[in-house]
Amino acid sequence: MQVPAPFEYERATSVDQAIGLLERLGSSARLVAGGHSLLPMMKLRLANFEYLIDINDLHGELGYIRVAADEVRIGAMTRHRELLESDALAQVFPIFRDAERVIADPVVRNRGTLGGSLCQADPSEDLSAVCTTLDASCVIRGSRGERVVTMEEFHVGPYETAVGDGEILTEIRIPIKPGKSGSAYAKVERRAGDWAVVSAGAAVWLDEQGQISDARVGLAAVGPNTTGIPEISASLRGRAPDESLYELAGAIAARSCDPVTDTRGSADYKRHLADELTRRTLRGAVERASAVERARS
Amino acid sequence: MTTVSEKKLTEFEDNDQKPVGFGRMLRKEDARLLRGRGRFVDDVQLPGMLHLAILRSPFAHAKIVSIDTSAAEASPGVKAVVTGETLKGLGLAWMPTLSNDVQAVLATDKVRFQGQEVAFVVAEDRYQARDALELIDVEYEVLDPVIDVRKALEPDAPLIRDDLDGKTNNHVFDWETGDAEETDRVFAEADVIVKEDIVYPRVHPAPMETCGSVADFDPVEGRLRLWSTTQAPHAHRTLYAIVAGLPEHKIQVIAPDIGGGFGNKVPIYPGYVHSIVGSIVTGKPVKWMEDRSENLISTGFARDYIMRAEIAATREGKILAIRTNVLADHGAFNGTAAPVKYPAGFFGVFTGSYDLMAAHCKMTAVYTNKAPGGVAYACSFRITEAVYLVERIVDCLADELEMDPAELRLKNFIQPDQFPYTTKTGWVYDSGNYEPTMRLAMDMAGYEELRKEQALKRAKGELMGIGIAFFTEAVGAGPRKNMDILGLGMNDGCELRVHPTGKAVVRLSVKTQGQGHETTFAQIIAEELGIPPDDIDVIHGDTDNTPFGLGTYGSRSTPVSGAAAALVARKVRDKAQLIASAMLEVSVADLDWVKGAFQVKGDPGRSVTIQEIAFKAHGAGDLPEGMEGALEAQICYNPSNLTYPHGAYICVVDIDPGTAEVKVRRFIAVDDCGTRINPMIIEGQVHGGLTDGVGMALMEMIAFDEDGNCLGASLMDYLIPTSLEVPDWETGFTVTPSPHHPIGAKGVGESATVGSPPAIVNAVVDALKPFGVRHADMPLTPSRVWDAMRGQATPPI
Ligand SMILES: Cc1cc2nc3c(=O)[nH]c(=O)nc-3n(C[C@H](O)[C@H](O)[C@H](O)COP(=O)(O)OP(=O)(O)OC[C@H]3O[C@@H](n4cnc5c(N)ncnc54)[C@H](O)[C@@H]3O)c2cc1C
């Protein structure tokens, strides 16, 4: 049994109370959501905190998936399993279900949360890549009120986010853009439940003519944070989707990422996967968008 | 005689029978284990028990300049802090390994691998002990480590074992087998020679339960009770007696339920000794239970062989000879567990299942700044490496000859009439009939169809591979004339007592870690005596209550203790026959044994059951002249030879050409372990071993960075396979009994671990044939497969 260093523990009863505790205790305190990233680090003594503020009782307040006409709002305490099982979410953004199917295992998915995943800011975190792909924004609340930041602003570096002392991530907002959309996620892992060697998400929006009105690609495990690639969006916009376009996007992805060699694989291989998975997910996303189109016509 | 049978996937339906003897039945131990009623070392709670935590070296190679324990000693709950210096005073700083080397119990002079034990803390609870470790201040002077095994013998390589008198290099041993000259001669005349460098990387057994112990030393009685995670309680007790100077009769080693061993729990680890010292120093029981990272970085690894393999053959595909040169990484201390005369274990069976003209192996073993160990992980004393070597190089030869690998194997098998067969390295294979086993596997696989499907797929650019491995193992160590561990002969005792009501208790020296001994051994007694298995209690794991023997590893339990159990039951039966003859008033020769009863020849109406005989043996009235009461016997079995199970494995894989991910689509395993005692248990052993094989072939490896940091220190980094990586196993069997084993059984515990990695690697390499790949080393992770596809396969170390 791996045992953590001593810490004090308190269960938060509301978001505001949690914020109050965080303000009072400062950087020696940490929120614990699902605990599936934090607790392993504490048991390995890679992280020691004097206080843990458990926000699992806030699931009632922060655990929701609300799909509106122009936006999806997901509470930070929403569990992996809820994201996996939500049909409403899968309908607008099938990428979530794709990703959740390959994140960890049922035990982890029962507890781990969207908020914890984003706040962990691990470069391999799949939900960060999903949110990057979908151009999500993050709602951060402190005692002075709420602020909303983009994913790029949210991830400051590996394991570092824009959430300050005395703040808490409460919600993720994802815009639903006009037109037909499709999204997909693909991951290469050495074994089920392992972190990604590389994973990629893609989302496309098609106009009336079937041209790409917008496209986004997000990659995990190939840089300091999950990486969105604006150059791909720029080169795909206004063009008709086809294999050569996916190839172009794949080439851009490979060139734009910054992987390192480790036990999961060589940098070259990861670059190759960035290419391969970008092509696959774009192809899948376009297929889904076109299927939506067919279904409607 | 070989019988052939195919087991379809209906395996579960008939498991819950109650055979009086051999046959499928659910395991007697499972009710306890599945309901959380098992009692493992960590479940042991004693009044006043303290907890121990070990401070380990962060460096692979460093001089210890100073250790300051004062802050730790002052930490809450701490009862003792012990360093190497303390142990030195007691003469306990070093202990012998299983290979006649020595290993530091706590480092005194230097640390020699990352994770080595430097000090330990005993405190009131586990948390306090662990917290106090942070307060021990060790000053190290970091030294250059030896990590690349190929450089260990370079003249300027740092010297690791300066503790050994006169040692000037990192050499452990040279070992040779076979006839070098004859082999060279055969090679010189051969049409075809194929050569390949083959690496079997370092892997870890990673049992679900980590290692640990609870020591309870009674200073008044001078008695030590030690609960520990050991596969060999008797051998351990003797070694503790020798190491600690405690009288052997005052040491009781108890191995309670063990959560998996795979060889990991054969050695004596410093932690066990720490708990003993901790208990002596504090006068209280002391528990040590290592955590997962400690288990992965410091306990017995397996493999770590770099092998150059060469095979010689005629153009027509007759294999003539095999020779190999091996560089073996033994880590910082030679902790290999193998019979003393076999420093490379049973690697000598690298000649495989083939009738050769010559063979030769030369091996050099070296020290490196890595954890010690060597033989562990279901390897049958290095047979895993040997089988991998021969089955890989035979496939390379098939590739060179453009021959089908199944056909090449069939052409070269040792023939049934050649048994007992003496190999060119001196091993006497007891029995075997290889072709039916191979044919059955091919039939089950639909081999011809698979090859056709592969051709179609290849034409479309899809990557499908079919891999074959055929293995012969040597298990059941062993005959005492040439096998011992630290001077202890590898024989097993067994005691059987039939109670007055005909229930029985059998006491074994071996110890299950999941193999199902409580069922298998009850079935062996049942088969011999006709007493139902549920009426037979199997006692094992406690040295005070069981006879001496060397323990469970190397698939030796059934070959050695299983024979002992059958023979002790026959001894009891012989006595029962004498009593029956008196009861029935006929001569002994006039009795027939029909399972469970003696019958008068020609008069089946007159008979006595074993239960009636048991009561008579304990009951009133005279027994035959000169006979003592009771119905019991004991034995110590010395096998005359090892047993040689064999098997044919076929694996089908698909590889994603874009991502290089390998998917094991099918796996057909036909095992021949001689007489089958409980087929369900055998299948369970095979399923587990095959899963192990998928792990080693595709993902497992204990890697190090150049500073000697272990890169596999958690199960996030050291991957073991899950149910999602394995297909539905397709198992079949043939039965070729062992001629010298009383019931004809051969070991099977490790067969699948031995046989599956080459089948999987052969399948992957076969799939990659369109890229001109002839060999790629394990672990075949997507990244490494992708390298191979681009002609850039590299060894993993
Ligand atoms: C075996 C295993 C396998 C895994 N595999 C994968 C995988 O394949 N892919 C993947 O993406 N992830 C994987 N994970 C991680 C898993 O998804 C975690 O659940 C997730 O990363 C963190 O979510 P959590 O709720 O458990 O966060 P916690 O561990 O509770 O917290 C993580 C960090 O976020 C902070 N935090 C949490 N919530 C908030 C909030 N609302 N506001 C501010 N800060 C907050 C915490 O203080 C902490 O610093 C795996 C984990 C395990 C144990």
UniProtKB/TrEMBL annotation, chain A:
Gene3D superfamilies: 3.30.465.10, CO dehydrogenase flavoprotein, C-terminal domain, Uridine Diphospho-n-acetylenolpyruvylglucosamine Reductase, domain 2. Residues 2-179 form the FAD-binding PCMH-type domain. Pfam families: CO_deh_flav_C, FAD_binding_5. Keywords: FAD, Flavoprotein, Oxidoreductase. It comes from the Bacteria. GO terms for molecular function: FAD binding; oxidoreductase activity. PANTHER family: XANTHINE DEHYDROGENASE SUBUNIT C-RELATED. This is Xanthine dehydrogenase family protein subunit M. The lineage of its organism: Bacteria, Bacillati, Actinomycetota, Actinomycetes, Micromonosporales.
UniProtKB/TrEMBL annotation, chain B:
It comes from the Bacteria. GO terms for molecular function: anaerobic carbon-monoxide dehydrogenase activity; copper ion binding; iron ion binding; molybdenum ion binding. Its cofactor is Mo-molybdopterin cytosine dinucleotide. Keywords: Molybdenum, Oxidoreductase. InterPro entries: Ald_Oxase/Xan_DH_a/b, Ald_Oxase/Xan_DH_a/b_sf, Ald_Oxase/xanthine_DH-like, AldOxase/xan_DH_MoCoBD1, AldOxase/xan_DH_MoCoBD2, AldOxase/xan_DH_Mopterin-bd_sf, CO_Mo_DH_lsu. Its EC number is 1.2.7.4. Transmembrane segments: none annotated. Residues 35-144 form the Aldehyde oxidase/xanthine dehydrogenase a/b hammerhead domain. Gene3D superfamilies: Aldehyde oxidase/xanthine dehydrogenase, a/b hammerhead, Aldehyde oxidase/xanthine dehydrogenase, molybdopterin binding domain. The keyword Oxidoreductase applies. This is Carbon-monoxide dehydrogenase large subunit. The lineage of its organism: Bacteria, Bacillati, Actinomycetota, Actinomycetes, Micromonosporales.
